[in-house]
Amino acid sequence: MESTVKPSPTNYTAGTFEYIEHAIRTAAVGTEFGTDFEWLCRYFLLTAPKYKGQVKSVWLWNEWPGRWGADKGIDLVAQTVAGKLWAIQAKAVRADGRYHLALFSC
Q1: What distance in Å separates the CA atoms of residue 77 and residue 20, rounded to the nearest whole number?
Q2: What pLDDT is stored for residue 100 in this prediction?
Q3: Does residue 32 lie within any of the structural domains?
Q4: DSSP 8-state assignment for residue 97
Q5: Is residue 58 part of a domain?
């Protein structure tokens, strides 16, 4: 018989992406999780060692100065230190801790 460990704050180290994602998912009401998750992804891109040296700025779509209309699948826009723009779709589909950042360079 297989045992399944349900995600909970005690399964994660405080302050990690997984810990924060679980906390905002648990506290979310209605559709607010999506916006909160986008904020978390923004923070991740600005602070994670893998991206920290590459990314100069990250905006939520509705805050990006170059936005041309309503959200059509782009959740965030990042500008690299080299001046390239990345269109980003942030997905956290299930409560089992699976999430995905799709980066598209412009």
Answers
A1: 21
A2: 58
A3: yes
A4: S
A5: yes
Q: Is residue 25 part of a domain?
A: yes
How is 16-78 classified by DSSP, letter by letter?
SHHHHHHHHHHH--TTHHHHHHHHHHHHHHHHSHHHHTTEEEEEEGGG-TT--SS-SS--EEE
Full residue range of the structural domain in which residue 19 is found: 9-105
What pLDDT, on the 0 to 100 scale, is given for residue 94? 57
* Residue pLDDT, tens place only, 37-70: 888 889 889 988 888 899 999 999 989 999 887 7
CA atoms within 13 A on the CB side of 80: 14
23, two tokens? 């906390």
Encoded amino acid at 10, one letter? T
- Give me the number of domains the chain comprises: 1
CA–CA gap between residue 45 and residue 40 (Å, rounded): 9
